[in-house]
Amino acid sequence: MQPMDLRGLNPAPVTAFNRDGSLDIEANVRIAKWLASFDEVKSLVILGHAGEGTFLTADERLELIRAYKDAVDIPIVAGITGEGTKVAAEEAKRSLDAGATGALVYPNHGWLRFGFQKGAPQDRYKAIYEEGGLQTILFQYPDATKANYDLDTQIEIAAQPGCVATKNGVRNMKRWYTEIPELKKAQPDLQILSCHDEWLLPTMFDVDGLLVGYGNIAPELLIDLIAAGKARDYPQARKISDQLLPVTQAVYHRGSHMEGTVALKIGLRYRGLLDHATIREPLKDLGEAAEREIEAAFDAAGIGRVDQAMAAE
Ligand SMILES: N[C@@H](CC=O)C(=O)O
Predict the structure, then answer these.
(1) Is 171 in the pocket of ligand 1 (CB under 6 A)?
(2) GO molecular-function annotation terms (predicted)?
(3) Ordered structural domains, the chain, with CATH
């Protein structure tokens, strides 16, 4: 297995729909090609939260993977969300056959409420790799949820064949500052990716890259932010973070992270990548005032329209 190189920006693209709610393959391909046109973009992580992955039918998910695979030359990572371990492994196998290389492995939904039995997460990752054939990304949910993995569980998953990276969204800096070094010590090759979209700055000095929905709307500045973090250049990282702040606030400091997905589409419309910001239920429109506020934030951050020629390619 040649492990995916995710050391850079790994955007989690939104899924574009037609106004009638059906999949808009042309618009999805446009976003995919634009993002993949940056050398520092290492993979595209589709069918995640930002991609409304669980709002798509099984057939639509595969159609989207195929479209991405045809459109770009970088690895496609699919969000794998099936509840049971066998179901998830089969979902992974179908995704592999459609063209995916990696799996962003979501926890079983029941664990969010009840917590998990010891060993169950390890077996889920094992099945997705061994039976499903996808390289896996260890998805660390926020500390506030019961689907959050203790350090031993993370280390054991990371040690399993096929696990190449962790997308860490723990949102507890006490844990981040102790667990990231321990993970690196135990598995030096494990690629560390932050997904703290709402406040990336404190995590930027410990990571190999980002795996973020934010990557949809501001890849240029996030690429610079990753570079500044790797150079341990705090003043530069802070400057970029400050420039992004109006957008961070308008998109991610909202009532709920779910609203962030809607806001991403409004941002992509502002940048000329989408004609409209159609979403699927259970997402809800944010309303005119919020849309203007989001657009004004892009303006304030100096993030403008993407060159039309590139967008149309
Ligand atoms: N950035 C969010 C949402 C993405 O999946 C996270 O922390 O998981």
Answers:
(1) no
(2) 4-hydroxy-tetrahydrodipicolinate synthase activity
(3) 9-232 (3.20.20.70)
